[in-house]
Specification:
Blueprint: H1 8-34, H2 37-56, H3 61-79, H4 81-85, H5 87-107, H6 113-120, H7 128-157, H8 159-164, H9 169-191, H10 196-210, H11 214-239, H12 243-262
Length: about 260
Amino acid sequence: MLDYLHYEFVRHALVAGSLAAVLGAIVGYFVILRHISFAVHALAHIGFTGATGAAMLGLSSLEGMLAIAIVAGVTMGAIGERLQRSDVAIGMVLSVALGVGMLFLSLYQGFSGQATSILFGNIFGITGEQVMQMFLLFLMTGVLLLIGSRRLLFASLHPDLAEARGISLTYLSMSFMLLIAVAVSLASQVVGILLVFALVIGPASIATRLTRYFWSGFFGSIAIALITVWSGIFLACLTNWPPSFWITGILFLSYIAAEIVKR
């Protein structure tokens, strides 16, 4: 398998996959703690519209998805708990977003493989320029997480007490939703928009079932994400099957095994 590292597209895939895996695992762990898994699913659907719209205009799908996902994420963060109670409204917005995305796909006149890569990912098609974009996004998001991690953890576990201590839950929620938007956008480059939920939520869900403490679950989530992505990439090289299949398949089997162990 080491022979595959001689190929530049494999090295790009490993770097991009690692960045998306680490950021997705970190953000996903806080998502599990805050019980807002629906946000990842929602932003993936909404980001689909931005990605297809950007492709139709000849722009990068990552840039398009990132732009609309950030706007949607910050808006969702500002609405806060009211959004969680409006399940019907959320479903209608996501349906419209998917419908508009499909319209953009139908109007897209370029290479048909672009549509497939948006939906299911094309990690072997990531260029060096895209890797650099992902690294800069990862770096900026990592710094923001490092700065606000203590407040975020405090507010996630004890929201009422955090608000009483003077922490603005609305501002914190908006900031965290922005980070989720970036994580979802990066993960979509690996497994595609339709499967991004698995990569962001999967490792954290598995880690919380196998560990009892915060830091063990936190680093366990990162380790599971990295091992899954690396394994998926190398298995795709060996079998010529899509890496998205291997990554989501490994996560699914790992989740089942973790659930059995927990019980």
